[in-house]
Amino acid sequence: MNESKMKNSKEFYEKTKNNVVNKELRYFISSVEHETGKAIELGCGAGVNTAYLIKNKWNVIANDIEDVEGYIKEELTEEELKRLRFVKGNFEEIELEENDLTFACNSLPFCKEENFQNLWTRIEQNIKINGFFVGNFFGVKDAWYKTPRREEMTFLTREQVFDLFKDFEIIEFCERNNMLPSASGKMKHWHIFWIIAKKLK
Ligand SMILES: C[S@@+](CC[C@H](N)C(=O)[O-])C[C@H]1O[C@@H](n2cnc3c(N)ncnc32)[C@H](O)[C@@H]1O
């Protein structure tokens, strides 16, 4: 990674390490009937959501392409650290393990479009029957869709999102299409599909 990219990621993690826990994840923990087990978070960033899962008794494999392990560990007690395993690497390439919950917040859209179906097939195969997916995808009305970022990312239509979940019960689905600040503070048009789903077969 070049120096300026490294500086940007460090700034991003410093800014987001005290973020509130993701709303959909809080809803899943508080309101969706489930048992705890093994979770995997893909593209965990500074690890706020991983730490929340661990504090709610999940064993978590936290993955990121960047070296963020230190940020996650800061939030955990010695006892809680026993429930964390950090795997540094590209989620398009790392070996995924069977799990009871796959969580991915603002990370899967950073998979290149040509690799997305393969990534999704592996994610789906590794969620156990009766296990869950909680996460989001960017839509084609997102402002980044019309920028060079499109070459590096995956944007889906509503229909394409539903197609991914043919073998799941959809527990919550929400489409957001609004202007909000990005991590840099600049306003941006976000088009995001959020989904909580249970794998049926
Ligand atoms: C926008 S941040 C979101 C971080 C965190 N999930 C959150 O909600 O705060 C995207 C994260 O995904 C990671 N990421 C992007 N592409 C990745 C890839 N191919 N494999 C693993 N992690 C990736 C980035 O390094 C970054 O930490």
Q: Supply Rg.
A: 16 Å
Number of helical elements = 7
% residues in beta strands: 25-35%
Query: Outline, from the CA principal axes?
Result: globular
**CATH T-level topology:** Rossmann fold
What are the segments in which pLDDT stays under 50 over at least 5 consecutive residues? Answer: none
Helix content: 25-40%
- The N- to C-terminal Cα distance equals 40 Å
CATH class: Alpha Beta
What's the helix-strand series?
HHEHEHHEEHEEHEE
The CATH superfamily is Vaccinia Virus protein VP39
Count of distinct structural domains:
1
CATH architecture: 3-Layer(aba) Sandwich
Task: Describe this entry's structure for a reader.
This protein is an alpha/beta fold and 201 residues long. The protein has a single domain (3-199), classed as Vaccinia Virus protein VP39 (Rossmann fold, 3-Layer(aba) Sandwich), CATH 3.40.50.150. It has helices at residues 3-16, 23-31, 48-55, 69-74, 78-81, 113-126, 158-164; strands at residues 38-42, 59-64, 84-88, 99-104, 127-139, 155-156, 168-181, 187-199. Strands 1, 2, 3, 4, 5, 6, 7 and 8 form an eight-stranded mixed β-sheet that branches. A hairpin with a 5-residue loop joins β7 (168-181) and β8 (187-199). The longest helix has 14 residues, at 3-16. The N and C termini lie far apart (40 Å). The mean pLDDT is 95. Residues 16, 19, 43-45, 63-66, 90-92, 105-107, 110-111 line the site of S-adenosylmethionine (SAM).
Q: What is the gist of this entry?
A:
Helix content is 31%, strand content 32%.
